Amino acid sequence: MKNFSRNIILGTITAALVATVIFMGCTEHKSKARVSKPETPAGWHLVWSDEFDGKQIDTTKWDFQIGTGSQYGLEGWGNNELQYYRKENAFVKNGNLVLEARKENYEGCAYTSARLRTVKDDGTELFTKTYGRIEARIKMPTGNGLWPAFWLLPATTDYGTWASSGEIDILEAKGRLPNRVYGTVHFGQAWPGNKYTSSMYKFPNNETIADYHVYSLEWEPGVLRWLVDGNKYFETSQWWSLGAGASEPYEYPAPFDKPFYILLNLALGGNYDGGVSPEDSNLPAQMLVDYVRVYEKNDPYATGVKRPTPQRDETNFKEFETADGHNFIFDSKLNHVVSETKNEGMSSNENMDVKTHDWYFLALSDFDGKAVSSKEDDGRRVKITNPGNQNYSVQLIQHLPVAKGYSYKIQFDAKASAPRKIAVKLGGDADNSWSVYSPEYYPELDTTVKHYSYFFTMENDTDATARLEFNLGLDSNDVWIGNVSVTQEEL
Questions:
Q1: Do 118 and 58 touch, CB atoms closer than 8 A?
Q2: ∠ CA(289), CA(291), CA(297), 5° rounding?
Q3: What per-residue confidence (pLDDT) applies to 192?
Q4: Of 46, 220, 365, 470, which one has the greatest count of Cβ atoms within 10 A?
Q5: CA–CA separation, 291 vs 268, rounded Å?
Q6: Model-level pTM?
Q7: Cis peptide before 419 (omega within 30 of 0)
Q8: Looking at residue 238, what DSSP letter applies?
């Protein structure tokens, strides 16, 4: 009897649902995308949105970016992407913004797609926001080489060029890995001194990016939170911004205290997923955006926030020696340099004693480097006869300890026989997988001695034998370096 009664009840409900669908089917296209309108998140109120309910894209809210990125100095959009962005690949249909990737030859590209943002090329701001909850309900395509994204870029360059003024990726997906998405924040210095932190969300219950999901960012002073369908999976308060030529970072929470604008795009190929190309059978592919909404917090935002002190390895740090109670470089004038023969440079990294305070001069034969070094004034001159095929073909290296959670300033004086760049970084040896601890710094040298400095926070595990590298390859002009210091600094 219980099963019989249950079947009657279910049959009645099913009939009612069928009748409802028949009644609404010809008039309510939006029901295919939005099952029910989500409630406003607790503690927030709506300040801007696009529900895509009209017949065309609202150009008072969105502008198209066209081309390959070359007009912005970013050929391949800075990521070796394969598509040409066109207006024709973006449109509104059945209550969705549709970004469509197609297999078609256009302006020298094998693919086309679409990219929209809330500012114009002439700098006109259609919509920008500092702080808030920014979210979108999106359904994405699957398949190799498909790279949909929902993200934010700074509306100003107050803190410098990318990524010193920041970037926030609310959502990025790799079409060939449909069971996961990623949230990322970019910061630090101008490229190539940029840094980033990221996290991944894996969908439960066999769900994928091909289903509609709500992707959200909660952005407050000193904190960024990423959510999928209301589930927080990533939160960070650790970032910094260092301007060109500066030795100290901007005051926290820079760069994420300025207005940013919104972007939506569907890229193909590119560096993000290792240059995987799309398969013709997966094209055309569509990214469907049901809505984009921006909320303001009901309560006032916090003021005077400070960068959280990262967890520090105090135990090891207290054991590390310094030359003068402050400088971890014992030979700041590069008096003691170990070379192979006649100052021609060691040909490999294998014979370095990482526990001494000696400098090591390397001209790596595997990378066609050839040079000699000599003591000059309060530093060392390196005369390069073959610059090699890598910036590390010719190197000056000093080992020193760096502890997790501590911040450091690297300083030195340098000049060159003619204008050129060198590459400076602090990282690990082979036993630490050649990890890079600091941003790689590319100072521009000329014929006069200048002082250079830059700053970084050690986010990797403590390394008692890290290596400070002055990489002098790729250019045959002589280099002089002196007065080197690495000091621990408070933010």
A1: no
A2: 135
A3: 76
A4: 470
A5: 23
A6: 0.76
A7: no
A8: -
Question: How far, in whole angstroms, is CA 251 from its chain's centroid?
Answer: 20
Collapsed DSSP state (helix, strand, coil) of residue 315? helix
- Taking the C-alpha atoms of residue 79 and residue 292, their distance in angstroms, rounded to an integer, is 25
Q: Which two tokens stand for residue 26?
A: 């010809």
Active site residues: 167, 172
Closest residue by Cα to residue 240 from 226, 251, 225: 251
363: which DSSP letter?
Answer: E
Q: Which amino acid makes up residue 18?
A: V
Tokens of 36: 């029910």
DSSP 94-145: TTEEEEEEEEEEETTEEEEE-EEESB-TTS-BS--BSSEEEEEEEE---STT
Which contacts of 306-310 are long-range, i.e. CB under 8 A and separated by 24 or more positions? 306/222, 306/252, 307/222, 307/237, 307/238, 307/240, 307/252, 307/253, 307/491, 308/222, 308/237, 308/238, 309/405, 310/238, 310/404, 310/405, 310/457, 310/459
> Rounded to an integer, what distance in angstroms lies between the CA atom of residue 101 and that of residue 83?
8
Handedness of CA 160, 162, 164, 165 (dihedral sign): positive
Handedness of CA 367, 372, 376, 378 (dihedral sign): positive
